[in-house]
Design brief:
CATH superfamily of the largest domain: Glycosidases
Number of strands: 21
Number of helices: 13
Helix content: 25-40%
Mean pLDDT: 93
CATH class of the largest domain: Alpha Beta
CATH architecture of the largest domain: Alpha-Beta Barrel
Number of domains: 2
Distance between the termini: 16 Å
Strand order of the largest sheet: 12-11-10-9-5-4-3-14-13
CATH topology of the largest domain: TIM Barrel
Strand content: 15-25%
Radius of gyration: 24 Å
Length: about 500
């Protein structure tokens, strides 16, 4: 049976419990508590993809597309997410002190129109949220906290960009520009950007990537693999810190600058919309002091000044997406040992959803992976950490079905839909038990969920039995499904953080 989702506003009122509900096309919908023992348990797994806008990696496919073209691409991408049974997208809205949404704090991103500061004629973030939620998908807004210009940028900086209005905060490092994390006002500005989005948009999460201080580069004139690295040019802010009586060593001071921003973002979210989750996606190798003999390589603790282990220890995030961008057999960075060590250093039991380098699957490159690598990593994650999840970098590889990966996911690990794991430390309790009504529309039933009493619902899980087989759909409103063979339905409601209500069952 093929189920199709129709984005329609819910209109059915709650119907009396245990009543027979006549259909316009004949038949009845009757409560059937005995079916609750038969319907399968809800699978829990965060299945998401990053949608990268920087350099037009994923969306829009190129600069300067019309509003209609951009929106058509977005809808097609979200439809692909639904077809693959993903349940979330992580959408990049701030690539380099710019905005893919209507902002008074930062200029429009050049990756929309080709010119920084020029409006695309609509609000992309508002559009993506509405379209994602209509499909039952979560949308997490992805920010880069400190980058101010990416090396693929072509547009002249807008007059309102920080490089023009606050040049003292902005430092040149290699071929990019960066906000100096040691400038307190730069941190205040970044925090204000996060809060502005949180207050004005109904996002399900705020998310940051791995760019804290920049990845180090060799000194000019040295080989790329030189151990002589160009230091980040933060001398003015460092001198002011010392003059104010600061006693930390320089590297510890840099880590403290990042720590404070992470802590303040998390505290701001809890004070503003406490149900919104905060996620961090750092470089995938932990600091040297907690590694085992199977792990070696770059230290973000020493080079990016990102003390991710402290953030986990303090609970300053709701989910961690370490970028485990190596194969299962990579010496020193093998996928499973890295996943194990992150999980072992998680005293607050935050979600750990590893990032997969899905875009490493490419058609004609010798270093390309085959789909079996990603499928194998999903298998490892499910074995090591059942009911957790993972995130694909990036959506383009799934959208293009590289080497048949999307087909293999749909036929294998994504055969059945999954609910996002609950985050009960943010919000207790569950929604009231929902109700279901139905209306015959030609060869389909239009099933209409309605919230029960008490805590409101954010979305619904609907199990459908057709020809003796159960399957689950996730929806925020009415669901149009083929009538052929359909004889039973079970529904539950989920709140904003994934807590599930009691279920209600019906026979058709």
């Amino acid at each position: 049976m093929t189920l199709t989702r129709r984005s329609v506003l819910a209109s059915a009122a709650a119907l009396a419990a245990c009543a027979d509900l006549p259909f316009a096309g004949g038949g009845s919908l009757r409560e059937a508590p005995e079916l609750l023992r038969e319907a399968p348990a809800a699978t829990r797994e965060f299945r998401a993809a990053w949608v990268a806008t920087v350099a037009n990696i994923d969306w829009p496919s190129k600069k300067g597309l019309s509003m209609e073209q951009q929106q058509a691409e977005a809808r097609a991408m979200l439809d692909k997410c639904v077809a693959l049974k993903l349940n979330a997208v992580i959408f990049q809205i701030r690539t380099a002190a710019d905005a893919l949404y209507e902002s008074k704090l930062e200029p429009w991103s050049e990756y929309l129109t080709g010119t920084q500061g020029v409006s695309p004629g609509y609000d992309p973030l508002a559009f993506w949220i509405a379209e994602a939620h209509a499909r039952g998908l979560e949308l997490h807004a992805w920010f880069n906290p400190f980058r101010a210009r990416q090396n693929s940028a072509k547009s002249t900086a807008a007059a309102t960009h920080l490089s023009q209005t606050r040049p003292g905060w902005v430092k040149s490092y290699g071929d990019q520009l960066w906000l100096d994390p040691g400038e307190p006002e730069a941190g205040e500005h970044t925090l204000a950007v996060f809060k502005d989005v949180l207050k004005r948009y109904e996002v399900d999460g705020l998310h940051i990537d791995d760019y804290f201080y920049p990845y180090p580069i060799a000194l000019p004139g040295r080989a790329a693999d030189s151990k002589e690295e160009l230091d980040f040019p933060d001398e003015p802010s460092w001198q002011r810190y010392q003059q104010a009586g600061g006693t930390l060593a320089r590297n510890d001071w840099r880590r403290q600058n990042v720590d404070r921003l992470i802590e303040r973002i998390y505290g701001m979210i809890r004070a503003t919309k406490p149900w919104v989750r905060f996620g961090v996606s750092p470089f995938g190798i932990p600091k040297p002091s907690i590694r085992n003999e199977n792990i070696a390589g770059f230290s973000q603790y020493d080079k990016l000044y990102a003390h991710v282990e402290l953030w986990l220890e303090q609970g300053w995030m709701d989910y961690l997406v370490p970028q485990l961008y190596w194969s299962r057999t990579q010496k020193g960075q093998s996928y499973e040992p890295l996943l194990q060590v992150w999980r072992a250093n998680n005293p607050m039991q935050r979600h750990v959803w590893p990032g997969l380098f899905t875009s490493r699957i490419q058609a004609d490159k010798p270093e390309s992976w085959g789909p079996d690598e990603i499928l194998g990593q999903i298998d490892i994650t499910r074995r090591v950490a059942p009911s957790t999840g993972h995130v694909h970098f990036s959506m383009v590889a799934l959208n293009q079905n590289r080497k048949g990966l999307a087909d293999q996911l749909a036929a294998g690990p994504y055969r059945e839909a999954a609910l996002v794991p609950a985050t009960p430390w943010l919000e207790q309790g569950a929604p009231g038990m929902p109700q279901l009504s139905a209306e015959r529309q030609g060869t389909n039933w239009m099933l209409k969920p309605a919230a029960g009493l008490g805590k409101p619902a954010s979305r619904y899980a609907v199990w459908l039995r057709a020809d003796g087989q159960w399957r689950m759909e996730i929806t925020t409103g009415p669901l149009s499904v083929p009538a052929a063979g359909l004889d039973a339905a079970v529904i539950s409601a989920l709140d904003r953080v994934g807590n599930e209500s009691e279920r209600r069952a019906y026979r058709l």
